[in-house]
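Field reference: sequence -> structure
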Amino acid sequence: MKEKNKSGNNFLVQGSILAAAAIIAKIIGMLYRVPLQNILGNEGNGYYSTANEIYAILLMVSCFNMPLAVSRLVSVRVQRGEYRNAHRVFLCAVRFSMLVGGVIALVTYVCAGLITKYLLSSELAVYGLRVLAPAIFISAILGTFRGYFQGFSNMVPTAFSQVVEQIVNAVVSLVCADIMFRYGESLAETQGNDSLAAAWGAAGGTFGTVASITVALIVVMIIYLSQAKTMRVRMRRDHTGVRESQADIYRELIVTIVPIILSTVVYNITNVIDLGVFSNVLQGQGYTEEQTMTIWGIYSGQFRVLMNVPLALASSLSPSVVPSLTAAMEKRDKAEARRKVQTSIRFTMLLTIPCAAGLAALAEPIITMLFNNETGTPLSVGIMQIGSLMIVFYALSTLSTGILQGLGQMRQPLIHCCIALVIHLIVLYLLLTTFNLNIYAVVGANILFAVIISVLNAISIAQFLSYRQEIYRTFVVPAVVSIIMAAAAYIAYMGCHLLMGNTVSTVIAVIVGVIVYGIGMVSFHGVTVEELAAMPKGSVIIRILRRMGLLR
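Structure field:
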């Protein structure tokens, strides 16, 4: 029993390390997007987001999911004590990533103009996409190194490199965006196209991605070399006698990664498809490219940037779930797998539900604090208030997809994503054309997309593990306490705003919300002492709560 608790603690600790790093990285990303938004404007931010969304899809095709596949394959061999084969998987994955990533990067650079002009009706995003092309090749290699470490349930290299990556990205993006925006202004004067400043500024901003990924790769390579001696010792002690051929490893690598790539592409391609449908429908309704890019820039550059901070929790917990569940299934221990599934879902919901409620309640103060009070602020506030549900369901769908992949069920997430995507597109088109909901159609269709995936994934998990999800303490109690928390935070903001400025009032309201939520969860028995103890620094949390009289 102690060993199981230790395993559970390690699983949560590693997940929390990655989650903490991801949140820090997302916060840095959110903060630098504020001055970047100010440099580029809404139109430039639209071009910047368009280039990045295409880049994200191409990155997924070129081994973005290599960390997940490599961590799963390495974890299986580590559980068997086959350290030589685990290292062979890594070496084969590096070669595979270099080949696929290099080809996709070259194709992206050559075909960037065709993609942006004919697929997305956003021709001037071509400059940013071409700048991003080399990052595809570098990211493929970086992902392999991260997956190798994750296969040993070591999330520290990934976490550290993510933070370094985002810091470099923030600095370089801002400097280059400003330089290239001014260059674009000079071109605009000679060529008579005012949009060139925004387009070239966006290209400068994307260079930060290339520079940051390069630095992150150097960081993980240094960590890898520093641990090479330990790995050699492990391989010398590997007496299993099983030596896999490279052909077998490549075959298993492809069989593992293809379903993951396809499901992830379908899952994440919605934003690119949304942009294409949204741009074409609105331009058919009389909107100009500049107007559609401005609206999309508000949606992607403000709402989605903020939304990605709490979503980092779910996307970061998945990498720690996969090797953990893989180990449980390798031991044929479904009881342990069920415990890990329940723990990960509860942990995610306990954190994302209050984040969604808080962003909805304090939407206007947060938008005003982070972004310039432009004409787009009311639209951004409306999007955030309506779209807060996306945070919960996207977190649940992301995590449950990772759970299925950790259980070795690779096809189900792909099938579920395809079903959800078809329904999503039909609903999106109807909301845009029949109901004329503009950008709110995109928000509503995305909520439905995530709900469908969450439900279908939950059914598959239940069937495979004979698992029954606990509802009351996982969903009901956090939702009720979050509503109380949101009301308390809003009242605190309104009271403070009578005497103080917006920023100070918003910070105080957030602190009040965190305190109210923590007290509420304990008071409503939303968390147990055992669950608190399993969390990172759980013993410290328990001592504090006991001193406050909230725990016996």
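Note: Residues 2-64 form the longest helix (63 residues).
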